[in-house]
Design a protein that fits this description.
It is built from eleven helices and six strands. It is globular, with a radius of gyration of 16 Å. The protein is α/β, with parallel strands linked by helices. The two termini are 26 Å apart. Pfam families: Abhydrolase_6 (PF12697). Keywords: Hydrolase.
Length: 231
């Protein structure tokens, strides 16, 4: 793929296939890549981050991280900070440096989740996927998201990310009708990510499918703001 400074690396939420970004990527019409899932079923957060970096190729890039993809983005900042132009969280979980997805959750979830992951695995029941993850979607994309949902490694939820000193441009898009991550929790993650660029979309947890054109427009505005700041 092209390695211009406009390259975007998309990091998906748990269980989602690369196709969920198709409409957004087509609307943006810039070089981009979707982070792949590592081949091993016991992949660590670092394995995910290294696979993502390999997918985007050499050169600098902007990260757009969705949901648990925020954890992977945090690890990328510890590995190749000099290559990252900006980080945009899209209803993203942002742990503190040295934290994990689980530790970023409010109480009592941070205590209950490890037990649930050990007993039930990382694929929620279909009813939970439809009611939470897929809320707001039309029937066709909802059915596809549910049928193709891929369980993740437990380590993706449990591993602690590396610390970093990256201080580049950051932004956050809050999804105001989200049943997976309530608005107040997203706002906390936005503060944790830092920066003062924040927008809101009136969608559930999958804005790239529910409002792809609006999602792409928000990404364009963030990239443009990042470019202006660097001048």
């Amino acid at each position: 793929m092209s390695t211009t400074s406009e390259s975007i690396l998309f990091i998906s939420g748990a269980g989602l296939r690369a196709w969920v970004w198709d409409d957004v990527r087509a609307d943006l019409d810039v070089p981009s890549a979707v982070a792949p899932r590592p081949a091993t079923g016991s992949a660590s957060v670092r394995d995910h981050a290294e696979a993502a970096i390999a997918a985007v190729g050499p050169g600098s890039f902007t990260v757009v991280a969705h949901s648990i993809g925020g954890v992977v983005a945090s690890e990328i900042l510890g590995l190749v900070p000099e290559r990252v132009r900006g980080v945009l969280g899209l209803s993203a979980v942002i742990p503190r440096p040295g934290g994990s997805f689980v530790s970023a959750m409010p109480r009592p979830n941070r205590w209950v989740l490890p037990l649930l992951l050990r007993l039930s695995g990382t694929r929620p029941p279909e009813s939970v996927l439809r009611r939470g993850l897929g809320d707001g979607l039309d029937e066709e994309p909802l059915d596809r998201v549910v049928s193709e949902f891929t369980p993740e490694s437990r380590q993706l939820y449990l591993d602690r990310v590396a610390g970093h000193r990256w201080t580049g441009r950051t932004g956050y898009v809050v999804t105001s009708q989200d049943r997976e991550l309530p608005r107040a929790l997203q706002q906390r993650f936005a503060q944790q990510l830092g920066g003062d660029w924040c927008e809101e979309l009136a969608t559930g947890h999958l804005p790239m499918l529910q409002q792809p054109h609006e999602t792409a427009a928000a990404i364009r505005r963030f990239v443009a703001a990042t470019a202006v700041e660097r001048l």
